[in-house]
Specification:
single chain, two-stranded antiparallel sheet, 2 strands, WH_DNA-bd_sf, Multiple antibiotic resistance protein MarR
Length: 145
């Protein structure tokens, strides 16, 4: 089913416009909340993914977070410079780079589960529990292939 036609399509009535605008608002608020930790919301995703053992290589992180490999490399460089993670070559396959949080990275990552929910809950404060669940369901449906 087509929801848009060339005649009915307008920038501000586009689902893509609304999703992008919501993303930008969320990133701005999350980045402000993370400022004292000297990380960004995108870097938060990397730290949490490593802490929760969701990904351990740059390729896995890129795939999981939906970030192209070039940007991922630059972000990992910044986190390594800040002393939050370290890279090491795989013994089995020298082409593979393994990532590990440093002690400082673990300390920062441990604070994130208190910061991120506060930002998200602030943005979701007008939603009922049912509306929140419906939003999650619809976003997941939108992301399905």
């Amino acid at each position: 089913m087509d929801h848009y036609t060339p005649e009915s399509f307008g920038l501000t009535n586009s689902v893509g416009f609304s999703i992008n605008k919501a993303r930008n608002v969320l990133i701005t608020e999350m980045d402000a909340a993370l400022k004292d930790l000297d990380i960004t919301s995108q870097q938060m995703g990397i730290l949490l993914s490593l802490r929760q053992d969701i990904a351990t290589t740059p390729f896995e992180l890129s795939k999981h977070l939906g970030i192209d490999t070039g940007l991922m490399t630059r972000m990992l460089d910044k986190l390594e410079t800040k002393g939050l993670l370290e890279r090491s070559r795989s013994i089995e396959d020298r082409r593979v780079v393994n990532l590990k949080l440093t002690k400082a990275g673990e300390d920062v990552a441990a604070q994130l589960p208190r910061i991120a929910p506060a930002v998200l809950n602030g943005r979701l404060r007008k939603f009922t529990k049912a509306e929140f669940e419906e939003l999650r369901r619809l976003l997941n449906k939108f992301l399905e292939d």
